[in-house]
Amino acid sequence: MNKPDDLTAVRDRILLAALPHTAFDGWSRTALEAGAKDAGGDAGKAEGWGAEMAMRAFPNGVPDLVDHLANWADRRMLEDLAELDLESMRIRDRIATGVRLRLQALSPYREGIRRLLSHLALPQNAPQAARLTWAAADAIWYAAGDTSSDFNYYTKRGLLAPVYSTTLLYWLADESEGFAGTWSYLDRRIADVLKIPAASSRIKKALASLPGPFGAFRRARG
């Protein structure tokens, strides 16, 4: 097997080879081992590619493969965002672009992603599904330049996570040209959630301006 510092490259190679199999075999050990075999090419058998390589690259099997897909999608998104002038973009546009680029990276494997959602919908996979959704929202906010570490950190990600999840579902069913319907839906959802912090800010300012105990309470909290 490759040196430890090549582990990510090996995992990428197996993941990309396994994704076409997931469309038919689901997110299973069968798909993982088939991907490892395909990733080895013609010389794969002699070099040990197959079940053994799959176990070495993904010791925990399918859960590791699912985690690596998320890692791969994040890296692809960041690479594509690095080519853009994010400084000239509004925050909402940075967020929308991050979601869009992440989904575009997954576009060649839509049927595999559809099977993945069915896999993650199983009760025993709920913790991983929740963790990966939060991680996707975190990666997108980070890429957009967010450096908050206070309560806003959780608020921003908590608002984006359902936007990402529902946009993903919309995208899987979208047959419009260039996924135009998905990007329109995404823009509307982001516009909706951005109204929440704005409303919260107006409420806080209103409370601070009130006389008596209400204003004193708000100023003490702020």
**Mean pLDDT over the full residue set:** 86
Please tell me how large the radius of gyration is: 21 Å
- Uncertain residue ranges: 1-5, 213-222
Relative strand content: under 5%
Profile the largest sheet: none
Q: Distance between the terminal alpha carbons, to the nearest Å?
A: 56 Å
Q: Please tally the helical runs, counting DSSP H or I stretches of 4 or more residues.
A: 10
Q: Could you say what the CATH architecture of the largest domain is?
A: Orthogonal Bundle
Count of strand segments: 0
**Number of discrete domains:** 2
CATH superfamily of the largest domain: Tetracycline Repressor, domain 2
CATH topology of the largest domain: Tetracycline Repressor, domain 2
Summarize the amount of helix as a percent range. Answer: over 70%
Which shape, going by the Cα principal axes?
Answer: globular
Please describe the topology of this protein.
Blueprint: H1 7-25, H2 29-39, H3 51-57, H4 62-81, H5 91-106, H6 110-120, H7 126-143, H8 151-173, H9 180-209, H10 212-221
Helix pairs in contact: 1-2, 1-6, 2-3, 4-5, 4-7, 5-9, 7-8, 8-9, 9-10
